[in-house]
Design brief:
heterodimer; A: 463 residues; mainly alpha; Cytochrome Bc1 Complex, Chain D, domain 2; 2 domains; two-stranded antiparallel ribbon; 4 strands; B: 180 residues; Rieske Iron-sulfur Protein; four-stranded antiparallel beta sheet; 2 helices; elongated
């Protein structure tokens, strides 16, 4: 074995390269936080390997996609491989996000590493594109409807929306063409982009050295008249002088990779890879929800409404992506230590809180239904029963009570109207306004309760 | 030793010339490969298309001109109450053509009139469900609400529900293409 190694090395002269790579000095504080980058790389490798395995049995056609996935699950270790791919994807989105946060917090995107931030930002977007395209492939309900909603969001872009929608779907419809397209993008186009970007990203890391965690007092102060490059090189040389060999830093990397592998394997074996019912464009009652990493965006759509919705969504996402990619050029503050960058750190904190908040609200939100008017203290049993009817009969779709409900009909009670039992009852059963459906199917008792509730809304009446 | 090119003014200009030629050839190779590939890949967004774009159509792939399909006898529908039916229609999906049931909500109007709705929200295409008690179509995604005439009563949908062309012949309700 050793002889073979020597034989190869004599010809390729690799050992000198490997030794130089492993023994090169890196800053001393390179440690556990730096493992996020290598963890991202590890998860990418995991996705590539399991993805290749899945491609051996997967068929990207609506006629067979779902069945081939179900078949994979019946094969020995099939469900495990698919589970690793799915859980690995979730973990990858999480870890790549944390990696970006760490780099941001430690200002590692500043001179001379601006370019590598930009490449990393594109890598982040590529990972999200992987998630989005991978999603559709199982062709189950979740896959189908998440893609309907996702592509329609893109299709809302002003002017170019229609073209974008067709570019994504391969036509106007979401169907066989879309599935083949997403598959091609997922297994060829994005991996090609990924490999090039990762290669450049890693090359830059090796070439420029790992950024030292910022110090409040740098090891070397710039000298008068010294160029930025010279000052930086002196400081980084000082960091490396008190540094440690790279192989020491690899140890935490390896341990984290091992832990991540254990987590993903455990999730794949214990939970498996969820698969919903086969995709059905005619589904009724299905509640489309994306995976957790797109829930924030899904939830955001609740808040951008009205005429300008499409413009707001498109503008917001474009600006957010641009700001993210261009961080090194927008942040002109030369300071690196978090304590000297209050604005940047606050912005980061606010972004994290917003994303977590939206994700939480999106994850816990019930499927959207009619607005529900809450009960207030002091209501009688009849009034409470009436309120229940009011909510159940869908009155809130058009009428608002105490600010809750739709605006198609008048808010209740109407301020100027004669608000008395006889008239209210008549208006429910046979409305004067032809826009309102007649609720003549209610029993007299139900009507009594509904009227009791509505009368209790009159200002001045108890409670 | 005498094979080594001599670094001199003549050789340097030759070097510049060769590199420029290489650059031009590389650009042509790149353009020659990428033009058809990028063109093919992006074709769906620029090729000529006949039917106008409709959200509901983009959700349920339906061939536009396929004549009329019966959804049932008019007396089986209660006036003003949307009823879900699933007539079998011809569906063209990329390279596949198949006959399959399509979800349609049909509402009988007074006398012998009827309208038929595509049950997808005009906001982002989520599946609408008719709620009997409330007499509204609800979208489970972002709170869109339509009344039984298909008009928006709440939420973000920008347009009323999309209808099918509808006619009644000899007591039979027929649906045609999606209306624009």
């Amino acid at each position: 074995m050793r002889a073979i190694g020597r034989w190869i090395d004599e010809r390729l002269q690799l050992s000198a390269l490997v030794t130089a790579f492993l023994d090169r000095p890196v800053p001393r504080q390179v440690g556990w936080f730096h493992t996020l980058g290598s963890a991202t790389l590890f998860l990418i490798v995991l996705q590539v390997v399991t993805g290749i395995a899945l491609s051996l049995a997967y068929v990207p056609s609506p006629d067979h996609a779902y069945e081939s996935i179900a078949f994979i699950d019946t094969m020995p270790l099939g469900a495990v491989v698919r589970g690793v791919h799915q859980w690995g994807a979730s973990l990858l989105v999480l870890v790549v996000g944390l990696h970006a946060l760490r780099v941001f917090a430690w200002a590692a995107y500043k001179y001379p590493r601006e370019l590598n931030w930009v490449i990393g930002a594109f890598l982040f977007l590529v990972v999200l594109a992987f998630a989005f395209t991978g999603y559709l492939l199982p062709w189950d309900q979740k896959a189908y409807w998440a893609t309907v909603v996702g592509t329609n969001i893109a299709g809302q872009a002003p002017l170019i929306g229609g073209a974008v929608l067709e570019l994504l779907r391969g036509g106007q419809q979401l169907g066989a063409v879309t599935l083949a397209r997403f598959y091609g993008i997922h297994v060829w186009v994005l991996p090609a982009a990924l490999i090039v970007l990762v290669a450049v990203h890693l090359f830059a890391v090796v070439r420029q050295g790992i950024a030292a965690p910022p110090r409040l007092v740098p090891l070397a102060q710039p000298m008068l008249g010294e160029s930025r490059r010279a000052a930086y090189e002196r400081e980084y040389a000082a960091e490396k002088h008190v540094g440690k060999p790279f192989y020491e830093a690899l140890l935490p990397d390896a341990i984290v990779a091992l832990i991540l592998l254990a987590i993903v394997l455990a999730a794949a074996v214990i939970i498996g890879a969820p698969l919903e019912e086969r995709a059905d464009p005619n589904a009724v009652g299905y509640v489309p929800r994306p995976d957790w990493y797109f829930l924030d965006l899904f939830q955001l759509l609740w808040y951008f409404t009205g005429e300008l919705e499409s413009l707001l969504i498109f503008g917001f996402l474009t600006v957010a992506a641009l700001v993210f990619v261009l961080v090194p050029f927008l942040d002109r503050n030369p300071a690196r230590h978090p304590r000297n960058r209050p604005f940047a750190l606050n912005l980061m904190g606010a972004t994290v809180v917003a994303v977590l908040g939206l994700t939480y609200v999106g994850a816990t939100a019930a499927p959207s239904g009619l607005p529900v008017v809450p009960a207030v203290a002091g209501m009688s049993a009849d009034e409470l029963a009436g309120l229940e009817l009011f909510n159940a009969q869908g009155c809130t779709a058009c009428h608002s009570v105490r600010g809750v409900g739709g605006s198609a009909g008048p808010a209740l009670p109407e301020p100027d109207a004669k608000w008395e039992a006889e008239r209210v009852r008549r208006l429910i059963v046979s409305p004067e306004d032809e826009e309102m459906p007649a609720f003549d199917q209610l029993s007299p008792e139900e009507l009594d309760r509904l009227v009791a509730f509505l009368l209790s809304l009159k200002p001045g009446s108890a409670p | 030793m005498d094979h080594e090119p001599q670094p001199g003014p003549r050789n340097r200009s030759r070097r510049t010339f060769v590199l420029r030629v290489l650059g031009v050839i590389a650009a042509q190779l790149g353009l020659g490969i990428s033009a058809p590939v990028v063109g093919f890949g992006s074709a769906p967004s620029w090729r000529a298309r006949t039917p106008p774009r409709l959200l509901s159509e983009s959700v349920v792939p339906t061939l536009r001109a396929q004549g009329w399909t019966s959804v049932g006898r008019i007396e089986d529908f209660e006036v003003g109450v949307p009823k879900r039916v699933a007539p079998v229609r011809r569906v063209v999906d990329g390279w596949v053509t198949r006959e399959e049931p399509i979800a349609v909500y049909v509402v009988r109007r007074s006398g012998s009139k009827a309208v038929a709705f595509d049950p997808h929200c005009t906001h982002l295409g989520c599946p609408l469900q008719f709620v009997e008690g409330a007499r509204v179509f609800l979208c489970p995604c972002h709170g869109g609400v339509f009344d039984s005439k298909g008009s928006v009563v709440a939420g973000p949908p920008p347009r009323p529900m999309v209808r099918y062309e509808t006619k009644v012949e000899q007591g039979e309700i027929l649906i045609g293409a999606l209306e624009e």
